[in-house]
TrEMBL record:
Residues 83-93 have a biased composition (Polar residues). Residues 54-93, 114-143, 190-223, 350-377 are annotated as: Disordered. This is Homeobox domain-containing protein. Residues 65-82 have a biased composition (Acidic residues). One of its GO terms (cellular component) is nucleus. Its main location: nucleus. Residues 201-210 have a biased composition (Basic and acidic residues). The lineage of its organism: Eukaryota, Viridiplantae, Streptophyta, Embryophyta, Tracheophyta. InterPro entries: HD, HD-ZIP_Homeobox_LZ_Class_II, Homeobox_CS, Homeodomain-like_sf, Leu_zip_homeo. Belongs to the HD-ZIP homeobox family. Class II subfamily. GO terms for molecular function: DNA-binding transcription factor activity, RNA polymerase II-specific; sequence-specific DNA binding. Residues 218-277 bind DNA. It is found in: Nucleus. Gene3D superfamilies: Homeodomain-like.
DNA sequence: GCTACTGCTTGGATTACGTCA
DNA sequence: TATGACGTAATCCAAGCAGTA
């Protein structure tokens, strides 16, 4: 993609002066020129990271995982096709905006965080006090016998058994111990309260979704996972966004839940994580759009002023034209200065991803093609077409491209 | 202060459907 | 091609919470 901004007659696109804006290292190469241009107010700084990694054809959940892949284990079964967003200069795969590194992603906080906006709260934050540790020293609340619990509810011994299935599943986070204790105590309490409640604590709503009660009536009462259980699942979710059957069974055993419950929890967790990330991305793109709108407005105003200036004083614009271009290969923005008098601003967009597009460097300001818009983000294709783009192929006369090749 | 009601949010569970081995 | 496992998306709905009268 090439973003070009030229002042003057851009038919002479050959440059005598260039600066480059690198996506990844803005202050590295030719940063002096960059700052120089910035001082002159010529820098169009669009902080969109560009990722040329194509998204997985399955599931479409990679965008939510990009920023989390770094913490994924190597043995993760997920299809983490998005590596670092480094651009291969010879890669002609479709460019894709990688928004995530610039977006503050909420960090899962198991502890209560009611002061967070709801849109940024994690799903585990039910903030409910139904299982609150009121007056029992932080211990899990006593609950009635939970029909969601496996009949073979295990105590600490089984849970912590090195021979258990869970031993093959990474459980080295700090909650492990406490959860084991919690489960152990919880089980005890459950069985105790089955015979007689210790009072004061609300009993967990027994749940067997789609299970049948004694009368064969389909009941859909739901349990609410306790904070400890949720935190435990959250920790597991940090490790693995998906579970293989072994891990599922192990987790279910650890938490004394049915494997189906663990499975559903992870399904919901993935879905809601993706939803949250989509909201964040949407918000970020909205801000980008606003910035671009404002920039566009400013440029148009500048254009009008320059045109008016030329009309009133034709000798005023005997200035070299400046062209800003972004190399699609290395994502540097280059400015070229040509000796021209035409007070014309041209913004061009060039992509190497389109082989069909002809080489066009226009001296008009209005050509916009969808080819210049990354296909990876659908709604970018429907963005306001106020920003003039022109699609061209590789230009052999492009100073930077010729240098790169 | 207590209670009942209402609207909203959360999150567990279900269902439908797509993908892949 | 049929099938089962597993994923996502959409949805349902019980439960909790806050505001109000």
């Amino acid at each position: 993609m090439e973003l070009g901004l030229s002042l003057g007659d851009n038919t002479k696109s050959a440059s005598s002066k260039s600066f480059f804006l690198s996506k990844n290292n803005i202050t590295n190469t030719s940063s002096d020129d960059y700052h120089h241009q910035k001082k002159n107010g010529l820098v169009f700084c669009m902080a969109l990271g560009i990722n040329n990694s194509s998204s997985s054809g399955r599931g479409g959940v990679q965008e939510e995982q990009n920023n989390e892949n770094q913490e994924e284990n190597d043995d993760d079964d997920e299809e983490n096709t998005s590596e670092e967003g480094n651009i291969n200069c010879t890669n002609n795969t479709p460019v894709q905006l990688d928004l995530l590194p610039l977006v503050p992603v909420p960090v899962p906080v198991p502890a209560p965080h009611r002061n967070l906006p709801q849109s940024l709260r994690w799903s585990s934050d039910n903030g409910s006090s139904e299982n609150g540790s009121s007056g029992n020293g932080g211990l899990p609340v006593a609950r009635g016998f939970d029909v969601n619990r496996l009949p073979a509810a295990t105590g600490m011994e089984e849970v912590s058994s090195p021979n258990s299935v869970a031993s093959s599943f990474r459980m080295d986070f700090g909650l492990f111990k406490s959860c084991v204790n919690i489960i152990g105590v919880g089980n005890k309490r459950n069985f105790e309260s089955a015979g007689g409640s210790d009072g004061g604590e609300p009993e967990r709503a027994s749940s067997r979704a789609s299970d049948e009660d004694e009368n064969g009536v389909n009941t859909r009462k739901k349990l609410r996972l306790s904070k400890e259980e949720s935190a435990y699942l959250e920790e597991s979710f940090k490790e693995h966004h998906t579970l293989n059957p072994k891990q599922k069974v192990a987790l279910a055993k650890q938490l004394n839940l049915r494997p189906r419950q663990v499975e559903v929890w992870f399904q919901n967790r993935r879905a809601r994580t993706k939803l949250k990330q989509t909201e964040v991305d949407c918000e970020y793109l909205k801000r980008c759009c606003e910035t671009l709108t404002e920039e566009n407005r400013r440029l148009h105003k500048e254009l009008q002023e320059l045109r008016a200036l030329k009309t009133s004083n034709p000798f005023y614009m005997q200035l070299p034209a400046t062209t800003l271009t972004m190399c699609p290969s290395c994502e540097r923005v280059a400015s070229t200065t040509t000796s021209t008098a035409a007070p014309l601003i041209t913004v061009t967009g060039t992509t190497t991803n389109t082989s069909k597009a002809p080489t066009t460097t226009t001296n008009t300001t209005t050509t916009t093609t969808s080819d210049s818009i990354p296909k990876g983000i659908p709604f970018l294709n429907s963005r306001p077409r106020f920003f003039p783009f022109t699609t061209t192929t590789n230009n052999p006369n492009h100073p930077h491209q010729s240098a790169a090749s």
